[in-house]
Amino acid sequence: MDGVSKGVVEGFSELDIRSGLVTRRIGAALHLFQDIDSTSEQAALLAERGASEGTVVIAHAQRRGRGRMGRQWASPAGLGIYFSVILRPPIPAQRAPALALLGAAAAAEAIDRATGLATGIKWPNDLIVRERKVGGVLGEAAVEGASLQHVILGIGLNVNQTEADFEGRLRTTATSLRIESGRFIDRIAMIRSLCEILDSWYERFLSDGIGPILERVRERCLTLGRQVVGRSGDEELGGLAVEIDDAGALVIRDVKGQLRRLFAGDVTLTG
Ligand code: BTN
Predict the structure, then answer these.
(1) End-to-end CA distance of the chain
(2) What is the pLDDT of residues 122-163, one digit of tens each?
(3) Is the CB of 67 within 6 Å of ligand 1?
(4) In angstroms, what is the span from residue 256 Cα to ligand 1's centroid?
(5) How far is the CA of 140 from the centre of ligand 1 (A)?
(6) What residues does each domain of the chain span?
(7) pTM of the model
(8) Which fold has domain 227-269?
């Protein structure tokens, strides 16, 4: 257990983030932590205890940041944004995965606004600048029977890391907004902007469904038109990525010309 949240942690305070924040839901409650296992784990705990939609958990550092597919998310102190939000959309449980696409579209927009960069999305929700990963989104749904209890959207952004801050494989696959834009990024302003963009996309989702978000994801998608190998569980699927369909699945045309859909998992770009 990570203890109670604080109004002030190293690098930012609740007051800093709130100042000028204009949102309807996202950030209605803010929980800040100096050092936590995982903001998404904490958000899930709060959600189970009844925390309201829009509650945000932010940490200065994570000890056990979680990535997709059971991977770790490197979360060094003070360098990145480690952000999770509780959503309680009135939708069937099987539509919950689409919300991670909403997270990716919103985070990409927040990066572009803060830096002037052009952020791409590698399906399903890797945030890519100049072919390297600057961030990712982890969507986790809590389901009881057929009913969706809540979704935790966890967003991790590499913000002020220098090359020396990346270790191992990340040295060749990851980058940060500071490296790519050539300047130090104000994390507080970016968190505020992320809350505002998420808020307006989520309102749009509640009124118009996933369609407009899928349009935005398709515009930014680096996967479409590329040869890919998709993996989901034990299944491996190679071919040309031709479409993101209306359910958010990646449609791959295999060597036999058959269209196959990947609903979850990971893709590697091979050509
Ligand atoms: C990915 O694998 O690309 C998704 C990474 C998501 C990382 C974020 S950091 C904030 C939140 N807390 C976690 O433990 N994970 C997510």
Answers:
(1) 45
(2) 999 999 999 999 999 999 999 998 899 999 999 999 999 999
(3) yes
(4) 36
(5) 10
(6) 8-220, 227-269
(7) 0.96
(8) SH3 type barrels. (2.30.30)
